[in-house]
Amino acid sequence: MSLCLDTEQLRILKWRINSKGIAACIGPPGCGKTTTGSALAVKLVAEGITDKLLLVAYTNAAVNEFAWEICNIMGPTAAREYCIRTGNRAGIDCELPIEFSINAERIRAKKIVLCTTLSLKRLSSYMRFDNMIIDEAGIERLEHLLAPFVLGVNQLNAFQTNNRNCNSINNLIDLASSCGIVATVIGDPKQSRPMGLEEYDRSAIEWVLKYGPKDTLKITHRLPDKLSGLVNDFARYDGLRSSPDIASRRLILDKSPNPIYREIIDPEEVVTWLNINGEEKALGQSSWANDIEAKVCAKICRELRYITKKSIAVVTRFSEQRRIITRYVQRSGLLNIKVSTTTGALGTQADIVLFSLVRNNPERIVGQAGTLQDLNVAISRAKEKLIIVGNFDTMLNGWSRLPSNSRYGYKSPSRRLAQLIDSKYGKLINPPSVICE
Questions:
Q1: Which residues contact 330 (CB under 8 A, 6 or more apart)?
Q2: What is the pLDDT of residue 212?
Q3: Which domains, and CATH codes, for the chain?
Q4: Which residue has the higher pLDDT, 21 or 196?
Q5: What does the DSSP 8-state code read for residue 57?
Q6: Phi first, then psi: what are they for 378, rounded to 5°?
Q7: Cβ contact 228:219 at 8 Å
Q8: Which pairing describes strands 410-411 and 399-401: parallel, antiparallel, or unpaired?
């Protein structure tokens, strides 16, 4: 068994091994949330602290990542002996060395059970756990958080009975802890929002942060110094920093870029904002697109692919913009360039990331494109170079909602991002006209 963890991850492990109840662990971008959760699961079982552990996440992709990380820590043979993957077979990574089964006896025989939140109902009639690790709690709602608790091993009936009479979240979380339920809730409310229709839903981890003990990882293994500083100041993580081995990392190119793109791609400048005055277009009730930005992103990707083999990704808030960028990228004959929405980019990374802002209008209404969570995801995916494509003035003076005679307005978090990049963490560039043609 190999546990190669940094000081912050070891601190979280020690804290949760020596404590009970329900607690939250915030993992900012690149801090190794999956690694920490997997290491905690392995250590609890290996040292006999926990007899039966449930490792649950909202998506199959996240559960698969946990399974692979456990395999890396324990080795495939031990992982197959101690762990089992259950739920919907269609979502399972077929290359995982961990056994998949929905057979109750096979599941009972294993120490660590991995499944999604939606698959928990298949376990509830015959399975009890004395420890839980709940991941992706930034996109989970309260009901997703509570779903595993009914599988708690101690005083289960008391929790189920009192849960019906509990009239506050504070009492509910206290009740779960008092019933002996031990759970580590992992996520980041500053990177994601709960799945659901309500715009202002609290995420599962926000409930635990509000009413339970908490701690935050501080070392990122993805972001070099300029990016970790930008993300830390923008999302106010209060101390996020780069690990020493990657702090000074910069983009290395195989060839020199075309003079037209030289300032945009400049490897010495970790963050570049390309000030594009493209016209936004509403598509449907909730999506927007910006054709000029989409073309510019494809042109930059084409130049990058010519001068480097580094991984490239394009991120945008809107599904229609993702579709248009994908079309232009494919027309350029480019391969292995991932284009995704900010929601789809959660948990992903690339050496070079382009972020298409899309919104640009005289009123400077940024709307949902300027939420802290979406902006934070977009600026924290890059490992070496971040290129923001969009109108700087709209973001610098952006509004989530304009004031009126009957209601207050809301300034967009995009203002803070624009100020930080322009003043401290990046370079604002007005592109040559040929790029926007």
A1: none
A2: 85
A3: 7-217 (3.40.50.300), 225-436 (3.40.50.300)
A4: 21
A5: E
A6: -60, -40
A7: no
A8: antiparallel
